[in-house]
Specification:
This protein is α/β, with parallel strands linked by helices. Helix content is 26%, strand content 23%. It folds into two domains: 4-154, Response regulator (Rossmann fold); 187-378, 3-Layer(aba) Sandwich (Rossmann fold). The strands form four sheets. A nine-stranded mixed sheet has the order 12-13-14-11-15-10-16-17-18, sandwiched between helices. A five-stranded parallel sheet has the order 2-1-3-4-5, covered by helices on one side. α3 (66-80) runs parallel beside α4. The longest helix has 15 residues, at 66-80.
């Protein structure tokens, strides 16, 4: 039985549920200040006590795409976990493309459409009372109301088990040799059109993980190696207490220098180094885990990069950082994200700069991710 719900709608529909919620003592918080489903995600921070989220389809936007709406609802599922999602779409029929996509992907627990408008209040009341498990549910059935009784009829037969959305992620255009340069400012361009720098300036790249052991050090060293492979002077600065410097120092590949070690074309400085010489074109700074670093220093780098994951035990770190606004200030590099889900994920977070890394176990052989690193740096 529903006891606490949030109703997201436009102001002119604010009283739509009043006759249903008031008599039942349901706590209904009416939210009319949202223009898009993505905005709801930021508001739902640590509100696991909500039994149900009701969303009016006007929040789909003026020209919604089914794929985009499904992606945003998937994010809501991540955030709300056991909270039910009810969609009210009284201007759409069951065969509407968006309704069909929501149903097919199982991203809402209940959908009420124009076909059910004559019995709207009784249907919603029964749903809130727990008398009906769902109107349109994940089980690929449409529940039709006839003479006050519930009758189930099959409407969708498509199985999604073996379907994949093989849509390549559109990569941003990389700045190349043909880019116009302001002649008033001396600029140095790479001969291969990547990893651009300005004369007499060192570009700082900050790398930080959303959680411990997510691969921040691996990516920081791999980025440095990718830059070194283009014959740029690059250094790596350990800015955490994880002692990666000590491990590398005793690993057999390191060459001892005055105040640092050098290996694989990278000069490596430990956490005690206060000043990095200005002879480098790039300095990659490893901040470790965001919960233990000084965030102001991290975001003060020229190119802050946050490493994140999308596994079940990782995604809540991503959602929490998104809700706090942390992710909007950096480039986001997702580890090992399924190719067929990448475009949907990017569309669900349109304000973020999201990139996807490939599996590359050898830190000093970053070939699989070189193009991604180039795009992040030149973005």
């Amino acid at each position: 039985m529903i006891q606490i719900l949030h109703y997201y709608c436009k102001p002119h529909k604010a009283d739509l549920l009043n006759n249903i919620t008031y008599p039942r003592g349901i706590s209904c918080q009416i939210q009319t200040g949202y223009i898009d489903i993505s905005d709801i995600v930021k508001e739902l921070n640590n509100k696991m006590h909500i039994d149900c989220i009701v969303i009016d389809d006007e929040l789909f936007g003026t020209m919604p795409e089914a794929e985009d709406i499904v992606s945003k609802l998937e994010v809501l599922k991540y955030v709300t976990e056991n909270t039910e999602i009810l969609i009210i779409a009284l201007d759409r029929n069951q065969n509407d493309d968006i309704i069909a996509a929501i149903h097919k992907n199982g991203v809402a627990d209940c959908i009420i459409t124009k076909d059910m408008s004559e019995r709207f209040e009784s249907i919603v009341a029964e749903y809130f009372d727990g008398a009906v498990n769902s109107i349109v549910s994940n089980s690929d059935i449409e529940v039709q109301y006839t003479n006050g009784n519930v009758a189930e009829s099959e409407i969708f037969k498509q199985s999604t088990d073996n379907e994949e959305l093989n849509v390549p992620v559109a990569a941003p255009e990389i700045i190349n040799d043909s880019v116009e340069v302001d002649t008033a400012e001396e600029t140095k361009l790479d001969t291969d059109g990547v990893f651009e720098t300005y004369d007499n300036s060192m570009i700082t790249i900050g790398v930080c993980g959303l959680q411990p052991h997510i691969g921040a050090t691996h990516h920081a060293l791999a980025i440095a190696k990718a830059i070194a492979n283009t014959h740029k002077r690059v250094c790596y600065k350990e800015n955490n207490n994880h002692c990666a410097y000590n491990v590398l120092q005793t690993g057999g590949m390191a060459v001892e220098k005055a105040g640092y070690i050098s290996m694989a074309g990278i000069d490596i400085f430990n956490e005690n180094t206060d000043i990095i010489p200005d002879k480098y074109s790039f300095c990659v700074i490893d901040f470790g885990y965001i919960g233990e670093c000084h965030e102001a220093d991290f975001f003060d780098t020229d190119i802050p990069v946050i490493i994140a994951g999308a596994k079940d035990w990782e995604i809540h770190h991503f959602i929490g950082a998104y809700q706090s606004g942390t992710l909007e200030k950096a480039n986001i590099l997702m580890n090992f994200f399924p190719m067929h889900e990448q475009l949907n994920f990017k569309n669900a977070f349109p304000t973020l700069n999201i990139w996807f890394s490939e599996y590359a176990p050898e830190v000093f052989d970053p070939q699989n991710n070189v193009d991604i690193y180039k795009q992040i740096i030149n973005n």
